[in-house]
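Sequence in, structure out.
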Amino acid sequence: MFALGRYAGARRQAIVALKEHGRRDLTGPLARNLALGIHQLTRWGVVGLPLTVVPAPTRSLAARRRGGDPITRVATAATADHPDITVAEVLRTSALVRDSVGLDSTARERNIAGRVRLRGRPRGEVLLIDDVITTGATAREAVHALVSGGAGVAAVLTVAHA
């Protein structure tokens, strides 16, 4: 698991503004940051090409409220110019998953446990992408769903860690 920086300062402000205030103009700067992270993981040999980037699942209600999934937009922009990297939205959460803001680590685990579903199978090596890693509950469930469905997950990359 890799994170591009701490969930603090300008990075935190950009993520919150993108997700909660519809600041689509921040997609580009966050995508450039994510693209550099993906490039570095490729250079280090952590991930290989061709690569499928899978965004962590976003609750359907949150995605509708936000006009789509911000992390998918960022991932798509980050990989747009790379012919050997595709983005596949193959993970969904069940309707029972609630917003995790304010939940402690135990409550986050209970909230997401067994509630991430794989819809379709990504091809080749997979890099799971998310905005913020807090307790790792969502990433663990997402990786579990992917691996259970036969996908080879090479790594998890987040824009920030809390």
